[in-house]
Design brief:
transmembrane, disordered N terminus, 60% helix, 4 helices, mainly alpha
């Protein structure tokens, strides 16, 4: 049983939640902008189907929107922010690998329709997820080592 004054360790540094919220907002904005583009339903490599520099298809727009919503939800808790960073790393590393092959071979029936700008965005997001995930995990480990447990505290009403 723990006392109410005992602090519990929290995962992740304090700055991680706002960073995750910003990443979530950016991807949500990109996803919403993709849905507002009339060419979203098209399939294939067409350079005119873009929002800013990034290609637009239904699948890619749904992925960006989902990543944005999950980022905003993950930013509500420190542990969720750390997990989100690791998911970003794994997911976008895979998307970058897929995107490099898809953009290099440019198959016209590709449903995701990634271009090189998407590859750079996804690659940089994967690297950021890795860096922030490592920083969050290290901060959680440090905090867990600093917080005393109930066994380390002196007994109530007496001395050790």
């Amino acid at each position: 049983m723990t006392s109410s004054t005992e602090a519990r360790p929290r995962a992740g540094p304090g700055w991680l939640r706002p960073v995750v919220a910003v990443v979530g907002l950016l991807y949500l904005a990109l996803g919403v902008a993709g849905f507002l583009t009339p060419e979203t339903a098209s399939v294939g490599h067409r350079p005119e189907n873009t929002v800013w520099l990034f290609s637009v298809t239904t699948v890619l727009t749904m992925v960006h929107t989902l990543v944005g919503v999950l980022g905003l939800l993950a930013a509500t808790k420190r542990t969720g922010s750390v997990i989100y960073c690791w998911v970003l790393f794994l997911g976008f590393a895979g998307m970058t690998a897929y995107g490099v092959f898809a953009a290099a071979f440019a198959a016209p029936e590709d449903p995701i329709n990634v271009n090189w700008a998407d590859n750079w965005l996804h690659g940089l997001t994967a690297v950021a997820g890795l860096v922030f995930g490592i920083a969050g995990a290290r901060a959680a480990t440090r905090r867990a080592q600093e917080v005393p447990t109930h066994r380390d505290l002196p007994p109530k009403g007496g001395t050790a």
